[in-house]
């Protein structure tokens, strides 16, 4: 398979960047070819990974080749491993959000193209990121011309935190700065999707829909369950629309944005679990998420998202928790028992990162002991995200 090389002659990081960037291509991406670029945003725990997986399966059923690009502030991302475990081609952009590592985003797409040129790229940005239209959508449209066919930008609405933020109710552990990021994510969207409707009473779904239509007039609002597939057809129809999108002009206070991101303690930890007998993988995951979330609730510290993946020989299981008010759930049951596992834990919590590390490590050891297992920690990254510094920020929409 021929290689795809991207050479960007960047003309600087000025927000009013002159479009002098050049693109040299070799291999499969010819002048008249374009890759459909579908990016799905949403706050931490909104259900982006589950939706991306369902979209990937849909496009594959249409005979299309699909590549997925995940994104995180650190390495050891549960989402990447979860999607790969389902058989998808996945590239990862670690260490910064798409907007702050735009070149790595295009390089990762190029690497997926070199392996087996995709018809569709599904991109999942960091859930604490906003201003993605100005920093990702418009740069792809304007700097790469017809090389990418950019789909409408959709944003998933997370009901557990979204309802409280949109009603202006006090957030447990979440500051106005974090709520600012959530609101800005909705403001820039071409359309909004209320996810997890299967878990909500119909009256609550109607109330949340009415609030969104009132506060974001003119923005289409869909209702969907990525888990069950209810409403999924409407999502596909919107993503399949053709045209020029990302036209909403949006002011962003990067000082407030930076404060909101820095509120969250960010932890990615990889570890090995072993036992002389077999352990129930799914129960281990649920116990682990429950132990961590229970300790955080007693602090108290609001959880934005907490998830863990367990991997063994032919075994994959994922459990997650999307807020302090929600129960832990198996998003990808393994139905397996085994004596040895590799586990990755991702936590995004409004708490000091060092305290978060202590809680996670103590919880892991306590759960392992209850299951008669031993633990070896391989790597733990724990920090607060730094100030966002986008590679490009194009304020004028494509005409």
TrEMBL record:
CobW/HypB/UreG nucleotide-binding domain span: 38-222
InterPro entries noted in UniProt: CobW/HypB/UreG_nucleotide-bd, P-loop_NTPase, Zinc-reg_GTPase_activator
Gene Ontology CC annotation, any one: cytoplasm
Secretion signal span: none
Disordered, as annotated region: 380-399
The protein, known as: Cobalamin synthesis protein P47K
Organism: Pirellula staleyi (strain ATCC 27377 / DSM 6068 / ICPB 4128) (Pirella staleyi)
């Amino acid at each position: 398979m021929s290689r795809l090389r991207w050479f960007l002659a960047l003309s600087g990081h000025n927000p009013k960047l002159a479009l002098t960037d050049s693109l040299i291509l070799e291999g499969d991406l010819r002048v008249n070819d374009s890759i459909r670029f579908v990016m799905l945003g949403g706050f931490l725990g909104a259900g982006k990974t589950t939706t991306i997986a369902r979209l990937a399966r849909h496009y594959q059923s249409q005979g299309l080749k699909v590549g997925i690009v995940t994104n995180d502030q650190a390495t050891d991302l549960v989402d990447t491993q979860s999607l790969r475990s389902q058989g998808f081609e996945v590239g990862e952009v670690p260490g910064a959000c798409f907007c702050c590592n735009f070149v790595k985003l295009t390089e990762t797409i190029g690497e997926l193209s070199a392996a087996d040129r995709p018809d569709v790229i599904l991109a999942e940005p960091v859930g604490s990121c906003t201003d993605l239209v100005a920093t990702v959508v418009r740069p792809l449209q304007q700097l790469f011309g017809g090389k990418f066919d950019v789909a409408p930008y959709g944003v998933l609405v997370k009901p557990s935190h979204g309802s409280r933020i949109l009603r202006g109710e006090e957030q447990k552990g979440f500051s106005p700065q974090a709520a600012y990021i959530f609101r800005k994510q909705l403001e820039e969207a071409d359309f909004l999707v209320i996810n997890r409707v299967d878990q909500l009473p119909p009256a609550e779904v109607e109330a949340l829909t009415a609030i969104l239509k009132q506060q974001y007039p003119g923005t289409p609002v869909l209702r969907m369950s990525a888990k069950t597939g209810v409403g999924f057809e409407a999502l596909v129809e919107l993503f399949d629309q053709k045209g020029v999108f990302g036209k909403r002009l949006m002011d962003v206070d990067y000082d407030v944005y930076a404060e909101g991101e820095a509120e969250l303690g960010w932890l990615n930890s990889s570890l090995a679990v072993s036992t002389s007998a077999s352990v129930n993988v799914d129960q281990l995951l649920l116990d682990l998420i429950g132990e961590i979330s229970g300790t955080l609730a007693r602090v108290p510290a609001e959880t934005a998202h907490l998830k863990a993946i367990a991997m063994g020989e032919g075994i994959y299981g994922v459990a997650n928790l999307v807020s302090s008010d929600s129960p832990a759930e198996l998003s990808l049951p393994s139905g397996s028992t085994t004596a040895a596992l590799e586990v990755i834990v991702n936590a995004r919590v409004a708490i000091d990162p060092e305290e978060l590390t202590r809680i996670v490590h103590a919880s892991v050891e306590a759960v392992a002991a209850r299951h008669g297992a031993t633990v070896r920690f391989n790597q733990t990254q724990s920090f607060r995200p730094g100030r966002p510094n986008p590679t490009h920020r194009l304020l004028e929409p494509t005409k």
